[in-house]
Amino acid sequence: MSLFNQQEGFSPVELNGVTLWLPPAGYVYDYLRGELVEVGVAGEGRPREQQHWRRPRPPKDYEERVRAMEEERRRNPDYQDPVVSRYRHREWQRRLYGYWFMNDGEPTFITGLHYFYLTHYRIDIGYPSFRITDQEVFWFWDYCVGNPNCLGMMLLTRRRYGKSYIGGAILAEYATRMRNVHCGLQSKEDDHAADVFQKAIHYPVRNLPDFFLPDHDQRVTSRWKFTKLDSIIDYRSSVATAYDGYKLMRYMCDEFGKTVKADVMERHRIVKLSLMLEDRFVGRAFYCTTVEDIDERNAQRAQELAEQSDHIHGLHDDGQTTSGLFRMIVPAYRSMNFDKYGRPDEHRNMVFITKERQKMLESGDQRGYLGVVRRYPNTYEEVFMTLRSSTTFGNLSLDITNRIEVLRGGVERKAVVRGFFEWVDDERRRGVIFRKAKEGPWMMLKSHAADSETFKSNKVAEYGTEIWPEGTSDFGIGVDPYAKSMAGANKPSQGAIAVFRKLDLHRPDISDMFVALYLDRPPTLHEFYEEVLKAAFYFGCPFLAEVNVSGLIEYAQSVGFNHFVQYLPGKRTPGISSNRSTKPRMVSLMEGYLLEAMDKIFFERLLIDLLQYDMDDSHKYDMAMAAMIALVACERARVSQAGTWGAEDANTLLQGKTSKTRNRYDISELFQ
To answer: Residue 599 pairs with which residues in a beta bridge?
Structure first.
């Protein structure tokens, strides 16, 4: 029984893209008896300021009682000291089922593994402190163990967070209570695996209380062999084949992003098989890493594995990711300076991180900036951030990162709101409204989230049975759709939509800018197509879609939105093809926009995509593609001659329009 399983009376908690189920306060689920058991909430009677984690201790005379009990057992082998027995039984119950305690007025639940880690797993600094982020990591691990479609978890966070100790506890807790299991460890290098084993497994296990430490072979220090359980914890070389042919029940891969001797992807393929029985996941893996100071090839392979572990956007029909793993990041701003309640001082941490980054930007040190970002990553994208000059917009990387830091300083938070579109009364022709929602797939400038003096939504007209967009002079939409098939892809492509507001010389401050972005992969293509139609209706403009993936345009035409489908100049078929001819021109248009109006971009996600964009491998960068298509849709020609890509060649995409073509969506001529 785990937090993955829904039970009557349990409460749902959303964490890292999954739903966990917590037992009622003061209760734990006894999976041996199959029922809830009341255990109470520790510290419930204390004043609120004294309600925080306190490591439970054994009775004061515990050691003396144990010695006396052992002495008595020489005469009476069945003798049990009642105090010792109650304490040991209590600790086993908590280790197996979890623990509740009061924390600043809130009943707080930790899993049995987390309790084991906090109470009995002594590390280099003593026993760990309670941290809310650790609580979330152990919750998520418990979910992964209980989910039959999950092979384990991948933890990404800053250096020296303590992830190796967490991984060590995962292996040790399992091997010291289960019979005939093999738990294995690998790391970036052979010597490092030995170091991790000694500090994160051997030393803490050696210091477990006697009732948690099984009989073991004391002659060997390079592994733990528990003789009566017939279970093993060992470490192996970092090579891909180290565990080939073995049956593993728990596996830890420490610093997988810095692996030197092996191909990370090939090693995972072999380990994955070792954790499976036929077509089922029977074992579980814990991967963790930072990626500071590694070469680009290792970073790329590590990123591929991370992309294959995206459980939020990359689940297949069977509920599994490509790698089998589910990934989690503990942002740097949530990983330091914890108070006595285990809460990080997020504001203090953000100020520190921002200052460290700004120092590098002000000095023009791109490599130094990259090092700081990777050392203290706040998002998944930052974990694998690169400033390679070989990226398509590498010549603008410093300017882009400067703008990213400005947005992170609070500018984006003040300007952008998340949410979703919905049809009024669930009917296409009644209109579209935008609803705010923290987890919504749409990112919208607040100035366009509702009607105002400067923005009017749903500028659409009906003429007979046909509907026409009437906001074409103001907006344009670029769409990068996705295919249903995910064959051959490390990470399934997402659907991306970018809405651009055309230049208004009377209001340049609120025009010539991206006003809304969408990035998601709904369960069905139909849902994505509807998102495109809702956006086109809301902004009253046609959409220009990439046609390398078919389906969207046909769908729009089949439901009466044929006038919302945009044609390029001189083309008889709608949409735009992404190929060797059009890509460089679209890139040039975006380069021109970045040179001329980067301070009008308020979406960090778009800038990160542009920073990483590789024209030769563009399928990974859905948001960047949608934004470039939107510039084409809006005829946003570049003026600046600076940069890498030629302005003249780019503008050929926008040339050749006669007045008749330009007014394709201005239907007033038809009714004069």
So the answer is: none
Q: Which two tokens mark 265?
A: 């992807």
Beta-carbon contacts of 452 under 8 Å, excluding residues fewer than 6 positions away, are none
191 CB contacts (<8 Å, ≥6 apart)? none
DSSP reduced 3-state for 301: helix
The pLDDT, as a whole number, for residue 550 is 75
Percentage of residues in the chain having pLDDT higher than 90: 70
Q: Which two tokens stand for residue 39?
A: 């255990």
Q: How many Å separate Cα 452 from the centre of its chain?
A: 35
Task: Average the pLDDT over 528-554 and give the result.
Answer: 94
- Residues 351-374 have a mean pLDDT of 86
Q: Is 252:304 a contact under the CB 8 Å cutoff?
A: no
Distance CA 342, CA 135 (A): 9
The confidence score (pLDDT) of residue 217 equals 84
| Predicted pLDDT of residue 457 | 96
CA of 470: how far to CAs of 132, 355, 475, 511, 664, in Å?
51, 47, 10, 17, 11
pLDDT score of 668? 29
All domains of the chain in start order, with CATH: 11-333 (3.40.50.300), 345-402 (no CATH), 414-664 (3.30.420.240)
From 100, 354, 95, 290, select the one nearest 208 (Cα to Cα): 95
Which among 207, 197, 48 has a CA at the least distance from the CA of 119? 207
Q: What local confidence, expressed as pLDDT, does residue 218 receive?
A: 79
Q: Where is average pLDDT lowest: 283-287, 391-395, 478-482?
A: 391-395
- Confidence check: pLDDT of 314 > 50: yes
Angle, alpha carbons 7-10-11 (nearest 5°): 135
Given a contact cutoff of 8 angstroms between Cβ atoms, the answer to whether 557 and 565 are in contact is yes
The pair phi, psi for residue 515, each rounded to 5°, is -115, -15
Tokens of 72: 């008595």
CA distance 103 to 343: 10
Residues 6+ apart with CB under 8 A from 29: 1, 7, 23, 35, 36, 37, 97
From first CA to last CA, the distance across the chain in angstroms is 71
- Per-residue pLDDT tens over the stretch 74-132: 999 999 999 999 999 999 999 999 999 999 999 999 999 999 999 999 999 999 999 99
The C-alpha angle 444, 415, 386, rounded to 5 degrees, equals: 85
Q: What is each CA distance from 617 to 72, 93, 533, 629, in whole angstroms?
A: 73, 52, 28, 17
CA distance 540 to 546: 20
